[in-house]
Amino acid sequence: MRLQIIVSLLILILKQERVASDLAKSEDPTAEKSNINEQTNLDPDLENQLKKKPNILLILADDVGTEDVPGYWGNHIVEMPNIEKLQSQGVTFLDVHSTPLCAPSRYMLLSGNYQHRGLKTPSAWNFWDGQNQFLHNQQSIAQVLKESAGYHTWMAGKWHIGLGTPNGQWDHTHLLSGIGANWTNPVTDGPNDIGFDQTYYTAGGIQEAPYAFFRNGILETDLSNVVLWPKGKYKMEGGLSAIRKEGEGDKAWDSTTYNMKVVNETKAFLDHHMENRAADPFFAYVALGAVHLPHSPPDYYMDGTPVAGQYANPHFDVLFEMDKVVGSLIRDIEDRGLAEDTIIIFASDNGGISSDSYEHKTLRGHKGQIYEGGHRVPLVFRYDGHWPKGETRTSKFVGLNDVYATLADIVDAPVPPRSAQDSVSFASYIESEENTDGLREYLGVWAYKNYREKVKFKLLQAESLRYKNLKVVKHNEPRKFIELFDLENDLGETKNIAEDKIHEATLNDMLNELKRLGPCPEERKKEGATITLKGNYIATPPVEDSGYIIHYAIMCKIVTPRVP
Predict the structure, then answer these.
(1) Which of 98, 309, 353, 522 is deepest in the core (most CB within 10 A)?
(2) Whose CA is closest to 205, among 163, 166, 259?
(3) Could you tell me the end-to-end alpha-carbon distance of the chain, in angstroms, rounded to an integer?
(4) What's the CA angle centered on 362, arms 360 and 365, to 5 degrees?
(5) How far is C-alpha 538 from the chain's CA centre?
């Protein structure tokens, strides 16, 4: 927002200088007379350039925690010169939080909401959900940037927040060939339906079927080339490809080349943008497959650098590849002369995976858990010539959901009603560690796990709330108990201080706030939702009943009208 004010003032000054110059000429009888339009208008190309909003490149890694990258706890093993360079040229945030799982964090990032404000608790994931996690009255950040700020929008890589087949039917084993769907028609409720102009993606990354890409919602694979991939490893052109779960896909599927394809497709988008819409800003959301299981590093990166076998295990090899990918994407911006016009963001969807490869871990827990290792994620912002270089932000915490309001704030785009309800801008905090006014006071995290896979029940295992340096953890299963940690003095969450009388009042206030923010948010109650006690279980998929979606949430059943 401050940038837009500066630009407006600059335009005004330039116009005034032009008018003053022309007035001086009018007093000089020897000077040529200017056209009246020239006295009040800048050159259209110059004015458009001054008014143009920044491009945005948002790179989202998969299952990469703060233990995995440099700039945090100092125990990283894999060399990451590109991420280190990005940090030296931008602002690194040390206290950033997602959800502990992939899909709900992606909804959190793109919607600005906690996960339970969407279609399902905790989230929609793939084709079997029938639609994406967004409710009909919610707009993604891509849609806001596109419709309110004129952005050209792009999404590449892992989608994983739900979509529907062209005919609305699906067969889990024979997803592509067994349901008679006309795959020449686009999928429903995919990224193209919530604000992305152009896309190249997989429904569930590299870890689950269908093992095929969709271009602008259309299956890129001809049905004659669809095969059923058994679980296993396969020697392919790029290296040792891996199938983690049996499912259908392209017979040429190669998990080792996934990230390189995403890079090349993004590069093609940038070229297309420069040729056709250079006057407009772009928003490129690039969701990597790295470093989710199965870990299948390529033999060589596209620049010829060996990858597979360079470190002690494939996990570290893929982390090494991820750094190469980040470097490629940033160079694609720099090589086009766009570095000073582009906000570059690097983040991850949740904490790192469980690993015994680190001798000394700073954080407790890992992906899927309520402790810091499960949801504290890396976040770096770079904007050359506009924001500081090589600085860190440590005094306040932010959520992945806050990226939405922050970007809307920066480009001066209004946030639609009922969208980004849990998002707080930290745009000023990027500029200075001292700019802490208006930042969030609380941040909630909810950890779900499968209860009974066959009936697809999700269990709210634990939940937490941050307030200043304190973090309360409320465990619901397998037994109920409360923990309280002072993260300023105990970042590893080793000492439970919940029984300390000095914290009794604060602890009660935090538990009440956690309940208020949780899966039965007050906002739904105010909209006239029906709420009844239902136990601790969350059934997925939700029951469709006369235009309503029924959510089973912790201790309540919420019936919310699907308002278009």
Answers:
(1) 98
(2) 259
(3) 31
(4) 100
(5) 24
Residue of 117, 190, 160 lying closest to 401 (CA atoms): 117
For 260-305, how does the pLDDT look when each residue is reduced to its tens digit (9 = 90+)?
A: 999 999 999 999 999 999 999 999 999 999 999 999 999 999 999 9
Distance of CA 75 to the CA centre of its chain: 25
Residue 55 phi, psi (nearest 5): -65, 160
What distances in angstroms separate CA 249 from CA 149, 153, 563, one per listed residue?
37, 27, 35
Fill in the amino acid letter for 444.
G
**Cβ contacts of 434 within 8 Å, gap of 6 or more:** none
For residue 188, the 8-state DSSP code is B
Q: What is the DSSP letter of 233?
A: E
One-letter amino acid of 122: P
Q: Chain-centre distance of CA 198, in angstroms?
A: 17
State pLDDT tens for residues 453-489: 444 456 889 999 999 999 999 999 889 999 999 999 9
154 CB-contact burial (10 Å; exposed 0-12 / middle 13-18 / buried 19+): buried
Give CA–CA dist 233/40, Å, rounded: 67
| Tally of CB atoms within 10 A around 298 | 27
Distance CA 3, CA 554 (A): 43
In angstroms and rounded to an integer, the radius of gyration of the C-alpha atoms of the chain is: 25
The β-bridge partners of 280 are none
Strand residues in 7-151 grouped as ranges (E): 55-61, 91-93, 96-97
CA distance 135 to 139: 8
| Three-point CA angle 442, 444, 449, nearest 5° | 170
Tokens coding 172:
């889990």
Output the six-digit token pair for 147.
Answer: 């419709």
The identity of residue 339, as a single letter, is A
Q: d(Cα 138, Cα 301) in Å, to the nearest integer?
A: 39
d(CA 242, CA 298): 11
Q: Residue 492 — φ and ψ, nearest 5°?
A: -80, 0
Residue 430 CA neighbour count, 13 Å, CB half: 27
